[in-house]
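Reply to dn_fold:

You asked what the input looked like. This is it:
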Amino acid sequence: PLLRIDPEVGRRRARELSELRGGRDQAAAASSLDAVRSAARGSENILPVLVQAFEEYVTLGEVCGVLREEWSEHREALTI
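and this is what came back:
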């Protein structure tokens, strides 16, 4: 059987995410993302910086976006 997810679930999650972003301290969230970017460029342990960012309600998508900008994405080489 196919898994069918009610479209309302997606709408509800989008609404919750919007409320989360709207209710957080925007300056603290931006500062946390800057710290993630700085840590990604350096050689320090990035985990404490990530924990701090999540405590400031920065989303996983926002963190991944910064890491993608700094580190790019791994692309498996296709060999036949």
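The mean pLDDT is 96.
Hope that clears it up.
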